[in-house]
Amino acid sequence: MVTIERDRYVVFKILLDDTKTEIEDLKRNVWSMYQRLYGLDGTTEAGLFFEEYDNEKRIGLVRCNSKSLSYLMTSFAMIREIDGAELLILPLFVTGLINKAKKYVSALSSPNHNID
Amino acid sequence: MQKDKDFSFNTSSSSENFISLDQTNSIETFCEIANQLSVSVLFFEDITISERNTMILNIESRPYNVFSPSFVYEQLKNEHTSNERIKDGFNKFLIAKENNSIIVATRKTLFESTKDELMRALSKNRRQYEIISVNTNNKDLLKWVAHDRRLDYISIDLRSKPSIIDNALCSLVKQNSKCFEIILSPLLLSDNNKDFSSIIRTGKKIMKLILSYNAPFIFTMCPQTPMQMRSGKLLRYIGELLGVPFNKSKLAVFDYQLSTLVDNTVKLHENYVFKGVKEVIG
To answer: What is the distance in angstroms between the Cα of B50 and the nearest Cα belonging to chain A?
Structure first.
């Protein structure tokens, strides 16, 4: 039987006190937390890929396997600091369509965003 | 074609049950982050009801509004009679977009280890806080707590021994409509892998027993700083690490907390006589 692996796109926002977060630091932390919780095997199956990240607005988009969505959320919830700075990764929106996810990100990035 | 399942994280309310204030963090900083996380009910530890009321008055105008539970109850008490209806009223009040509101409640955790000490502490603190919970390692005391109507939660730290929770206690908690309060912060704060795995192991044992009895439980993050707060959904995802399925923890992040708060707010109101009876003027 052929099974199709579906992707999920998660739009997230980083709440941080003052310092800026680089995408590389963020990637490293998400990967290491995921690996700490679910092992190397789980991490490879998740298919994590950071599609985009706005450094100014601290809004990003990450792709993962649909079956690993809850594991990714748990990893987000468990991250509490990057390089000694406290932060909180807040997932905002989950969708299976990349265009929809990008539309959401661009709406958030615009100055007067209004998302229903 | 299968419909795509999109969902937004900002639609559901949640509550943070155990916030300790210190000199560096004020009530406003917690409310600010809570507003972004859609956490609509905050319980502050060791702040009495009168202190809370003064703090609320001192909060300057912000994009959110802060209320006390008694204020909301005053608005609703003439419209609704039963506690269930009042709870619905609280829910509607929190959901209403124009209010953008956060309810600030108070709580006290008692750490006494004997019954006499606990009774003494209880008589001292009872009417000064909206929620009272007990955190102890004494097994017999926990069974007494499960019977007592003045106490609301049994707090469980994941670093404590799993043997303090047993079948009899779970059964008693369920019968007396009490709640287990599971403090998840040790999971977040442990840096050591060995420590982390032992916490998960303890948590899984406790949660397996609680789930087998369908005893009510709530999750709390017990944040020391605003950044340690988590939204309800994220708490439920952390709960999955302890073997609690996402769908079984739906009531553990908002509903039980709100029901307890509403019940206690009604009890603390001056019109309350005893259960089911209240004084009506006019």
So the answer is: 31
Residue B1: how many CA atoms within 13 Å on its side-chain side?
Answer: 3
What are the structure tokens assigned to B12, written together? 């559901």
E-assigned strands of chain A? Answer: 7-16, 49-54, 59-65, 81-82, 85-95
Q: Do B5 and A88 touch (CB under 8 A)?
A: no
Return the CATH fold of A7-109.
Alpha-Beta Plaits (3.30.70)
pLDDT at B3: 46
Residue B59 pLDDT > 70, yes or no? Answer: yes
- In degrees and rounded to multiples of 5, residue B273 shows phi and psi of -105, -65
> Do the Cβ atoms of A73 and B230 come within 8 Å?
no
Q: Could you give the CA distance from residue A63 to residue A11 in angstroms, rounded to a whole number?
A: 9
Which among A91, A5, A80, A37 has a CA at the least distance from the CA of B240? A37
Q: Is B75 helix (H, G, I), strand (E, B) or coil?
A: helix
Assess contact for A83 and A16: CB atoms under 8 A: no
Residue ranges of the domains in chain A? 7-109
Q: What pLDDT, on the 0 to 100 scale, is given for residue A116? A: 47
Global pTM? 0.92
Q: How confident is the model at residue B2 (pLDDT cuts 50, 70, 90)?
A: very low
Which of B10, B33, B234 has its CB closest to that of A73?
Answer: B234
| Low-confidence stretches of chain A (pLDDT beneath 50) | 116
- Grade residue B79 by pLDDT with cuts at 50, 70 and 90: confident
More confident residue, A59 or B279: A59
For B194, name the nearest residue in chain A, comparing CA atoms only. A36
Q: Are B7 and A17 inside 8 Å of each other by CB?
A: no
Question: How many Cβ atoms from other residues are within 10 Å of residue B173's Cβ?
Answer: 25
- B230 contacts in A (CB within 8 Å)? 77, 88
Domains annotated for chain B, with CATH where assigned, are 14-271 (3.20.20.140)
Q: Is A95 helix (H, G, I), strand (E, B) or coil?
A: strand
Within 10 angstroms of residue B116's Cβ, the number of other Cβ atoms is: 8
Measured CA to CA, the distance from residue A93 to residue A12 in angstroms comes to 7
CA gap B48, B33 in Å, rounded: 22
Backbone angles phi, psi at B169, to 5 degrees: -65, -45
Q: Do the Cβ atoms of A100 and B237 come within 8 Å?
A: no
Whether pLDDT at B83 is above 90: no
